[in-house]
Design brief:
174 residues; 3 domains; 8 helices; 2 strands; disordered C terminus; DUF4817; DUF4817 domain-containing protein
């Protein structure tokens, strides 16, 4: 079972205050966290491991293994900046691969250090002449079907956004 930092710290304190007794530590743990009589408590091996870790590192939590790798170093930040300026249309994933950094690290550098924000280029439909004309006159064009204006070229009356009493009459011929 996984135990959080508070539970580990309490178990270490209880171990020392009970005179290095694992059984007394388990009883104190059950009382402190209001556990049922058959609920799981840390076993002997866990408590002894936490105490040993506490004596070595002054912390009951697990030690991080390996060499800490500072990925967001000034050199890497500058490398990402130069790479983005060199080819801005390239994806962040491809930049990460080229720089031999993880995708997550490159995205973190872009967002937090370089203040770049993710976006995706969107291709939208071209506006028809009627829609451009109506847009310039202040009319809401979202309800105008584009095929209607292209096929029939009829005059259409729409209410203007400038004034509810004003009507805009447009005629587009092809």
């Amino acid at each position: 079972m996984r135990w959080n930092s508070e539970e580990r710290a309490f178990a270490v304190e209880a171990y020392f205050s009970s005179g290095c007794s694992v059984i007394a530590t388990q009883r104190a743990f059950r009382n402190r966290f209001n556990l049922a009589p058959l609920a799981p408590v840390p076993d002997r091996k866990s408590i002894v491991t936490w105490v040993t870790t506490f004596r070595q590192t002054a912390s009951a939590t697990k030690r991080r293994t390996g060499v800490p790798r500072p990925v967001r170093s000034p050199e890497n930040i500058e490398a990402v900046r130069a790479s983005m300026l060199r080819s801005p249309r390239r994806s962040a994933r491809k930049h990460a691969s080229a720089l031999r950094l993880s995708d997550r690290s490159v995205r973190r550098i872009l967002r937090d250090d370089l203040h770049f924000h993710p976006y995706k280029m969107a291709i939208v439909q071209e506006l028809s002449e009627l829609q451009l004309l109506l847009l310039n006159s202040g009319v809401d064009t979202s309800s105008i079907p584009s095929y209607f204006s292209l096929r029939y070229g009829l005059g259409i009356t729409f209410p203007s956004l400038l004034s509810p009493l004003t009507l805009v009459r447009c005629r587009v011929e092809y």
